Fold these 3 entries.
Entry 1:
Amino acid sequence: MILPVFSAALVLVYETYIFDIDGVLISNNAVVKNSPEFVNYLYRQGKNVFFVTNNAQVNTFYKAEELFKYGFYFITPRHIITPLDVLINYFKIHNYTNSTIYLVSTRNIKETLESKLAIKVLGFEAHAPLQEHFDYQDVITSMKSKPSAVVIDEKPAFTMQQLATIINFLRDPEVKFFALGTDMVWKGPNDILCPGGGAIKSVVEIVTGRTATSFGKPSISLSDYIHSTMLIDVNRTIMFGDNLFTDIEFANSNGFDACLMLTGVHSATDVDMVIRKKMYINIPRFVGNFSDIIKELSNMISAHRFEIFAVTMMMCSFMYQCIMYIVVVLPKHNYLC
């Protein structure tokens, strides 16, 4: 892997910093070393700092509180953007209020959509107990109400019965197809890889032949949302992420610089692979390590303080010489005259 390392000297170059959360700031339910120090430093320097997660199930208020406990002291809910925020904004613009959707996600997402948009949400009806054979009647019952859209997200208890229901709904071209989660995998405890919402989305796309409108990284919908809600200079914006196919692709698609943090999904070997395959949209400009950046910043601050001290001492010396000239030399000169 031949990529430059993000250094402390580059901090002054950028005005806006966008961070993924899982795998970048938090990994395996623990804070990534020195990530709070770096983020807090950016806030103190007056930088614009935002957090864009592909986890639609994140409650921004609880997440801000959780990050505060980890040592990120300046984060508020308005700094955190989720795919659900983008979907709700899209639904408001396109007048989905009081409509019906079929949702593959958690009850928290269901309740949020119902409360904020008065949307009727299908997909949480009582299903027949799981059996070895396929239950056609369960699918037929689920299809009695036609939705305006199918919305896919991560759901551990996703079943073949639900897949069959979705397939049949999407046979109707008037039923829109949306996806919240786009990550194919996410890293769990002990470095195990778990299927994300993008895995379910991909299965549905393959089976139906339809392409979902996505609301997470690297979607156009998210790009539009960010550009409409943030005043940012793309030439002075950088994103820190751990996923080459969501975070890094999102940054490159928007003209941001991208820094891959090797604390999450993808490794240096994966970077070599995308370089070898010339997948330019997935190649980061930098790789980074928060501990190295903080160490460099500490050295720079120490050097800067020494320079200030040296300049201060020079000024004091000059002022002392001026005072001595006025107090000692000038009176003697006047006396001789």
Entry 2:
Amino acid sequence: MEPILGALVSRKEQVTDLLRAYVAQMPSGERLPSEPELARRLGVSRGTLREAVSALEAGGLLLRRHGIGTFVVKRRAEVQSGLERLRGIPNIIRSDGRTPGVSNQSVTRIQVPGSVGEHLRLPEGAEAILVTQTYLADRIPVVHALTYIPPMRELGEVFAYLEQACRRPEPIVLFDVLEAQFGQPVRYAVADVAAVGATAPMSTALHVEEGCPLLLLEETHYTADDVPVLHSLDYLRSDAFRMFVIRERKAPLAAPRPKDRMRASTVVSQASRTVVAGESTSVDTPAGAMEGETQHGT
């Protein structure tokens, strides 16, 4: 009986996570569909759904009113982060007060696609490492990441380390791995941001509908010596992850004061010369005019 009980508990947790992701897309105050309809949409049994609803109610995300329905009472704000600093997705999630996690974490050896090879300065058909991760914030999937790593030292050595790391429950922060394990600290990145629609694999990983708008953050990461060591494609759920940029306007140069302009004019007048037939001759400036300008400038 114990293995069966363990399976039931695991199923309850899975359905609770599924319901939490569903609720996260609803505005505060909206009523959930009826129990039969919600069970049908989520593809779960009504009994397990009731347990999941109770868990979210205890966590303050849902409110049940007898005879009326179940309502969303609190929708967590999106994970928010600026684009100015390179920290790694798990560190961004943690700094926002959430608990980072990961699912579908895997590593494979592949031949890099042409566009990725250009970013990593690899020839066509070159072998590289692909790390696939779906990052979680409070157990809700928020980012699906594909990261390509070019050959560093012996490719097999890097692959073996990452393969072992992928077996651990915590998410890998590749910035930390490159610096601590392989002496390749990332110093800066060139980023491109675009809006894309979720493909079938992305919709499965992020628990969204196919075609749902996502934010694509594509970056090539470099060492201080301008060597590319990572190329990443991070697909962010637009309803759960918000990126922003702090932009500054450079202060305009101060206009010269009238007194400064007068002094500059005096200096130019004193140094004025004209070139005639390749010879430099001084231009005579009336002494009175020069003195007058000098007097205005003091």
Entry 3:
Amino acid sequence: TPKLSFHHTMLVSQNYYRRQWSLSGNHRLKNICVIMEWVPDKEHLKTNEPPTLPTTRQKDAEVKAARQAEEVKIKQLIEMYDNDGNGTLEFGEARPLFKDLGVTLTVDEVENALEDLDHDGDGTIGTDELRDAIVNRNYYQIKHGRYFVVLTLREAEGVRAAMHHGAFGGGTMVALRYGLAGSTTGGSRILETTSQFEPASHFHSELCDSTFRFCDSELEFEDESMSMLLWQLQSDPLANRSQFFNDIRACRRRSMKEWEGTSLRLLFTEETSLDVMETKAIISRIKTQIYMHYGLYILDVWRLIDKNGDNQLSHHELWNGLKALKVKIKKSAFDDLMAHIDTDCDGDISYNEFRAVFQDDELESTICNN
């Protein structure tokens, strides 16, 4: 089984899984039930340490090539969100980008994040600054020195007993989390903590939940969780990701549902968040045309595009529909969009699939208000 580049603050107890088991017989992995949130010393917590730079010429060359490819994609992304065509993103243009990244921030938090990203203080987001937002995710505010550890139930009982006896002193903070298995929303919940415990940021907690739900062989993820998985594993080849998932799932007692028709498919078909963002940028542009420019409801658009009235959209009907909405799109980007909408992979788009992608209650409310 290949190793994947999970965030270094995500750990698994040796008692939950031992490598020697693979040589001593069949062992089935149990669902992840309890996670320990552990800070050895709160005085040593640090936010967003810079990544370690490569040390060999070969790695330097690989990083340089990857950086150049990223810059090309980021410039293309800026063009998609750049409504006034000035080559940068004003804060108003950048807000939809955060939403498309799957980031759940309040309006004030978005403003603060954009101000932090605007290194030169000119009120716009350029190529390098947007790279920080998408690739480095500096706004996640993940504190190094805080760890999430998968425990066995017996270990959790021991940790809980130690907490009750005051065994964790000084600057050590510990919490036990539960409720991860089978959860698609809401995530794990804190069961018990030591005194003066300070919880992790929303993003770090979500990083924990998305990581261990993936390791737990779950298939359905919200946009924010999927964005975090793509961010973590952006340096891992697609083949390694799928092999890891299939190998782990083979050690579980559960039905082997195919991932192609689930939200997890993005992790095995898209290399980085940048690849997903192109499709999401196009979707945002289509929504703008539907709701803001033409003032249409989603059912009206469906009836307009579904020319033969068979309640299915073919490639040809969707292509002509986008032309009618005056949305310019390249053939390769259109194919990616079609694959994104067609979740059951039957070659056509149903109304439910169409509505799931383009329905936007917030934008639709502006039609009602106007």
